Amino acid sequence: xxxxxxxxxxxxxxxxxxxxxxxxxxxxxxxxxxxxxxxxxxxxxxxxxxxxxxxxxxxxxxxxxxxxxxxxxxxxxxxxxxxxxxxxxxxxxxxxxxxxxxxxxxxxxxxxxxxxxxxxxxxxxxxxxxxxxxxxxxxxxxxxxxxxxxxxxxxxxxx
Length: 159
Description:
CATH class: Alpha Beta
Mean pLDDT: 83
Largest sheet: 5 strands, antiparallel
Distance between the termini: 85 Å
Radius of gyration: 28 Å
């Protein structure tokens, strides 16, 4: 009579499973740490684009309706707020006027011009599309990224 070895399937031990779970947790933690920085950069760029769009809208409204349009940027607890306003009666029903646009991922906004501008920053777009006072907005993220927004003929940003 011949004896045969009975093969049994061997399962993972508890230690092997714990090592795999801890390695996966470590890799996930590193990814989450790096993703936090990526999300903050994305949110800052999104707020920068939203600020540029609001300023372009103010200039567009001033030229289209031949009215003086004022933008006021104020410092709030969680960031900055921008309000677009005008004294033109024909524009009062425009849905973007007199609403607060919030920028929570911008750490500091400074207006660089010949005159020193304090909080609140007031920028007036005339009926011809020109702004008063002429200058550049400088915005800073919480990660110390600095961007200058040129408020010339075409509103553009440069890092």
